[in-house]
Amino acid sequence: MIDPKKIVLVGMPGSGKSTLGRVLAGKLNFPFYDLDDLIEEKEGKKIARIFAEKGEGYFRKLESSVLSERLAGGEAFVLATGGGAPCYNENMQRINSKGVSVFLDVPLNHILQRLTQTALDIRPLFSGMDTSEIILKLKNMYVERSPFYEQAKIKLRGEDISPELVIA
Ligand code: S3P
Questions:
Q1: Angle at which helices 91-98 and 56-72 pack, to 10 degrees?
Q2: Which residue ranges are tagged as binding site?
Q3: How far is CA 82 from CA 11, 12, 29, 58, in A?
Q4: Residue 5, Cα to own-chain centre: how many angstroms?
Q5: What is the pLDDT of residues 67-85, one digit of tens each?
Q6: What is its EC number (predicted)?
Q7: Which distant-in-sequence residues (6+ apart) come within 8 Å of 44 by Cβ?
Protein backbone atom coordinates (compact mmCIF):
# COMPACT_ATOMS: atom_id res chain seq x y z
CA MET A 1 0.00 0.00 0.00
CA ILE A 2 1.25 3.47 -0.87
CA ASP A 3 1.78 5.69 2.15
CA PRO A 4 1.67 9.40 1.22
CA LYS A 5 3.73 10.13 4.32
CA LYS A 6 6.77 8.26 3.04
CA ILE A 7 8.54 10.80 0.84
CA VAL A 8 11.55 9.50 -1.07
CA LEU A 9 13.89 11.89 -2.87
CA VAL A 10 15.79 10.57 -5.89
CA GLY A 11 18.27 12.16 -8.30
CA MET A 12 21.88 12.50 -9.31
CA PRO A 13 24.70 12.79 -6.78
CA GLY A 14 25.03 16.44 -5.81
CA SER A 15 21.46 17.36 -6.78
CA GLY A 16 20.61 18.49 -3.25
CA LYS A 17 18.49 15.54 -2.05
CA SER A 18 19.82 15.64 1.52
CA THR A 19 19.64 19.43 1.83
CA LEU A 20 16.08 19.63 0.54
CA GLY A 21 15.08 16.48 2.44
CA ARG A 22 16.18 17.90 5.78
CA VAL A 23 14.24 21.12 5.26
CA LEU A 24 11.14 19.29 4.00
CA ALA A 25 11.22 16.88 6.95
CA GLY A 26 11.54 19.82 9.36
CA LYS A 27 8.53 21.58 7.82
CA LEU A 28 6.41 18.43 7.88
CA ASN A 29 7.65 17.41 11.30
CA PHE A 30 8.68 14.01 9.93
CA PRO A 31 11.97 12.28 10.70
CA PHE A 32 14.64 12.67 8.03
CA TYR A 33 16.83 9.77 6.88
CA ASP A 34 19.74 9.73 4.50
CA LEU A 35 20.07 6.27 2.96
CA ASP A 36 23.88 6.52 2.83
CA ASP A 37 23.96 7.35 6.56
CA LEU A 38 21.72 4.36 7.34
CA ILE A 39 24.06 2.11 5.30
CA GLU A 40 27.12 3.48 7.11
CA GLU A 41 25.45 2.89 10.48
CA LYS A 42 24.49 -0.66 9.59
CA GLU A 43 27.91 -1.56 8.23
CA GLY A 44 29.93 0.52 10.72
CA LYS A 45 31.98 1.93 7.82
CA LYS A 46 32.00 4.94 5.56
CA ILE A 47 30.58 4.47 2.03
CA ALA A 48 34.00 5.02 0.43
CA ARG A 49 35.44 2.27 2.61
CA ILE A 50 32.64 -0.16 1.79
CA PHE A 51 33.33 0.40 -1.94
CA ALA A 52 37.09 0.02 -1.44
CA GLU A 53 36.94 -3.10 0.71
CA LYS A 54 33.89 -4.96 -0.61
CA GLY A 55 33.22 -3.48 -4.04
CA GLU A 56 30.20 -1.86 -5.68
CA GLY A 57 28.19 -5.10 -6.02
CA TYR A 58 28.24 -5.59 -2.26
CA PHE A 59 27.31 -1.95 -1.70
CA ARG A 60 24.31 -2.21 -4.07
CA LYS A 61 22.93 -5.26 -2.24
CA LEU A 62 23.33 -3.55 1.10
CA GLU A 63 21.75 -0.36 -0.25
CA SER A 64 18.71 -2.29 -1.53
CA SER A 65 18.22 -4.16 1.72
CA VAL A 66 18.50 -1.03 3.90
CA LEU A 67 16.05 0.77 1.58
CA SER A 68 13.56 -2.13 1.74
CA GLU A 69 13.77 -2.24 5.53
CA ARG A 70 13.03 1.46 5.79
CA LEU A 71 10.13 1.29 3.32
CA ALA A 72 8.61 -1.68 5.16
CA GLY A 73 8.17 0.18 8.46
CA GLY A 74 4.96 1.96 9.44
CA GLU A 75 6.36 5.43 10.12
CA ALA A 76 6.19 8.63 8.13
CA PHE A 77 9.52 10.03 6.90
CA VAL A 78 11.48 11.93 4.31
CA LEU A 79 14.27 9.78 2.88
CA ALA A 80 17.10 11.00 0.65
CA THR A 81 18.46 8.10 -1.42
CA GLY A 82 21.96 7.79 -2.90
CA GLY A 83 22.10 8.67 -6.60
CA GLY A 84 22.33 5.04 -7.74
CA ALA A 85 19.74 3.55 -5.38
CA PRO A 86 16.66 3.78 -7.66
CA CYS A 87 18.58 2.25 -10.57
CA TYR A 88 19.36 -1.20 -9.11
CA ASN A 89 17.39 -4.26 -8.02
CA GLU A 90 14.00 -2.85 -9.01
CA ASN A 91 14.29 -0.29 -6.24
CA MET A 92 12.36 2.37 -8.12
CA GLN A 93 9.31 0.09 -8.36
CA ARG A 94 9.71 -0.75 -4.70
CA ILE A 95 9.86 2.94 -3.77
CA ASN A 96 6.78 3.70 -5.89
CA SER A 97 4.81 0.85 -4.36
CA LYS A 98 5.38 2.17 -0.84
CA GLY A 99 5.65 5.95 -0.94
CA VAL A 100 5.80 9.18 -2.89
CA SER A 101 8.94 9.55 -4.98
CA VAL A 102 10.29 12.97 -5.89
CA PHE A 103 12.95 13.46 -8.59
CA LEU A 104 15.17 16.51 -8.17
CA ASP A 105 16.14 17.23 -11.76
CA VAL A 106 19.03 19.67 -11.56
CA PRO A 107 21.15 20.67 -14.60
CA LEU A 108 24.54 19.00 -14.75
CA ASN A 109 26.45 22.29 -14.65
CA HIS A 110 24.86 23.07 -11.30
CA ILE A 111 25.67 19.60 -10.03
CA LEU A 112 29.26 20.09 -11.10
CA GLN A 113 29.49 23.32 -9.12
CA ARG A 114 28.21 21.55 -6.02
CA LEU A 115 30.67 18.69 -6.23
CA THR A 116 33.49 20.41 -4.37
CA GLN A 117 36.61 18.49 -3.44
CA THR A 118 35.16 17.47 -0.07
CA ALA A 119 31.97 16.28 -1.73
CA LEU A 120 34.04 14.26 -4.21
CA ASP A 121 36.14 12.64 -1.49
CA ILE A 122 33.06 10.99 0.02
CA ARG A 123 31.77 9.82 -3.39
CA PRO A 124 33.85 6.83 -4.49
CA LEU A 125 32.39 6.74 -7.99
CA PHE A 126 34.31 9.94 -8.77
CA SER A 127 37.51 9.18 -6.90
CA GLY A 128 40.76 10.16 -8.59
CA MET A 129 39.00 11.80 -11.57
CA ASP A 130 39.88 15.17 -13.06
CA THR A 131 37.19 17.67 -14.07
CA SER A 132 36.80 16.46 -17.65
CA GLU A 133 36.45 12.85 -16.49
CA ILE A 134 33.87 13.91 -13.91
CA ILE A 135 31.86 15.77 -16.57
CA LEU A 136 31.88 12.72 -18.85
CA LYS A 137 30.93 10.42 -15.98
CA LEU A 138 28.06 12.69 -14.93
CA LYS A 139 26.75 12.86 -18.52
CA ASN A 140 26.84 9.08 -18.90
CA MET A 141 25.25 8.58 -15.50
CA TYR A 142 22.46 10.99 -16.38
CA VAL A 143 21.68 9.14 -19.61
CA GLU A 144 21.69 5.74 -17.88
CA ARG A 145 19.81 6.82 -14.81
CA SER A 146 17.19 9.29 -15.99
CA PRO A 147 14.81 6.51 -17.18
CA PHE A 148 14.69 5.38 -13.54
CA TYR A 149 14.45 8.86 -12.04
CA GLU A 150 11.72 9.76 -14.54
CA GLN A 151 9.49 7.09 -12.98
CA ALA A 152 9.17 9.29 -9.90
CA LYS A 153 5.68 10.53 -9.14
CA ILE A 154 6.78 14.14 -8.76
CA LYS A 155 9.52 15.96 -10.64
CA LEU A 156 11.06 19.17 -9.32
CA ARG A 157 13.00 20.82 -12.07
CA GLY A 158 15.16 23.85 -11.73
CA GLU A 159 18.31 25.75 -12.37
CA ASP A 160 18.82 25.61 -8.66
CA ILE A 161 16.33 23.98 -6.37
CA SER A 162 16.49 26.02 -3.24
CA PRO A 163 14.69 24.47 -0.27
CA GLU A 164 13.27 27.86 0.70
CA LEU A 165 11.79 28.32 -2.77
CA VAL A 166 10.41 24.83 -3.06
CA ILE A 167 8.86 24.72 0.38
CA ALA A 168 6.85 27.89 0.66
C1 S3P B 1 26.22 6.93 -5.48
C2 S3P B 1 25.86 8.09 -4.85
C3 S3P B 1 26.18 8.36 -3.45
C4 S3P B 1 26.40 7.06 -2.68
C5 S3P B 1 27.38 6.18 -3.37
C6 S3P B 1 26.95 5.83 -4.80
C7 S3P B 1 25.82 6.74 -6.90
O8 S3P B 1 25.14 9.13 -2.85
O9 S3P B 1 25.20 6.36 -2.49
O10 S3P B 1 28.61 6.85 -3.39
O11 S3P B 1 25.84 5.61 -7.40
O12 S3P B 1 25.46 7.75 -7.53
P13 S3P B 1 24.85 10.68 -3.28
O14 S3P B 1 23.82 10.68 -4.35
O15 S3P B 1 24.35 11.28 -2.01
O16 S3P B 1 26.14 11.25 -3.72
A1: 10
A2: 14-19, 36, 60, 83, 123, 145
A3: 8, 8, 22, 15
A4: 18
A5: 999 999 999 999 999 999 9
A6: 2.7.1.71
A7: none
* Domains assigned to the chain: 6-166 (3.40.50.300)
Coil/strand/helix, residue 155: strand
State the Cα–Cα distance between residues 52 and 47, nearest whole angstrom: 9
Ligand 1 pocket mutation pick from 19, 88, 112, 125 by most atoms within 8 angstroms of CB: 125
Indicate if ipTM > 0.90: yes
Ligand 1 centroid from CA 96, angstroms: 20
CA 119 – ligand 1 centroid, Å:
11
Burial class from Cβ neighbours inside 10 Å (0-12, 13-18, 19+) for residue 168 reads: exposed
Buried b (16+ CB within 10 A) or exposed e, 23-34: bbbeeeebebbb
- Report the predicted TM-score, pTM, of the whole model to 2 decimal places: 0.93
**Distance of CA 109 to CAs 15, 82, 151, 158, 164, Å?**
11, 19, 23, 12, 21
Residue ranges for the binding site for Mg(2+)?
18
